[in-house]
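Duplicate of #3305? Posting structure anyway:
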């Protein structure tokens, strides 16, 4: 019975983590969270209550600014991904170098 409950709990946790986009494991990101686009800095424009030329123009401008902010956010995220890949490759190269140094030491080179 305990095994069934434990197995059910594990399956439930895994499915919830996938559903909410949460990755289980260690992270180098602060608080294991990447900043969401809409959470703090950017506010999605809302349609004006009245329909006149000024409000239409202002709303269009806000949407255009919001789209540009989204493009900037995506570009910055892509840059972050590149930095992460580079750091990962450097860590692997450093670990491989340490193994090579150790192997040379053991062999007496």
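Output from current build:
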């Amino acid at each position: 019975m305990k095994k069934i409950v434990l197995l059910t709990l594990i399956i439930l946790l895994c499915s919830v983590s996938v559903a909410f986009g949460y990755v289980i494991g260690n992270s180098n990101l602060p608080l294991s969270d990447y900043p969401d686009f809409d959470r703090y800095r950017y506010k999605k424009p809302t349609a004006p209550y009245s329909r006149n030329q000024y409000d239409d123009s202002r709303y269009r401008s806000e949407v255009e600014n919001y789209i540009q902010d989204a493009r900037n956010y995506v570009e910055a995220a892509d840059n972050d991904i590149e930095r992460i890949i580079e750091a990962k490759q450097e860590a692997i190269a450093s670990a491989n170098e340490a193994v090579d140094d150790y192997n040379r030491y053991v062999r007496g080179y």
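Confirmed duplicate; merging threads. The CA atoms of residues 65 and 74 lie 14 Å apart. Confidence is low (pLDDT under 50) at residues 16-20.
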